UniProtKB/TrEMBL annotation:
This is SIMC1 protein. InterPro entries: ElonginBC-PRC2_ViralRestrict. One of its GO terms (molecular function) is SUMO polymer binding.
Amino acid sequence: LQRMLSIAVEVDKSPNCSSCKIADVIFPFVLNIPVRNQREALLNTMESHLLRCKLLEMMFQHSCNVPTTLPLSLSKILHFLGHSSVLLQYQDEVATWQRWDEMLHYLSLLLLSYQNVILAFPLAEHLRSSLNERMDLIIQKAKPKLQDDDDISQLDIHLKIEDFLNRMQQVLGQPFPLQIQEKVCMIQ
């Protein structure tokens, strides 16, 4: 299935457009997966970084208490850190911190996938371009164009992380589990 989805994204003249269409179809099914490890298995095994980005972006947009119209960018990922909640279904009762842990896992997965789409090694660059255009861009050694919203400062990151940690402290009301601290450091 993952290989078929990856091919479906790649063969289109506009991988960006096809990944949006495929993510629109998959998204309701992902929301109804009741077990965390099943959701993670689907997202972790996704071969298309572009499709994974679109699907995770939709999940965060869905759980965001302050919607944004920013294009997918580092600024938008920081926005998700500051405004997302944990609205996914759960089959079992899990601790609140585990729900936040899952959200942070998906945020780091979104960040890594986005880096692969935009900044990664030469064969993965230009994932938003068609296969023919991508080969020409690689031959020309053209660097992917960053968006204005990818220009964020260390201060922006620090402030968003501090806001997130304050929000976590209010929600959990206790010291954070080590897993949460490690994921926050990794995202930072």
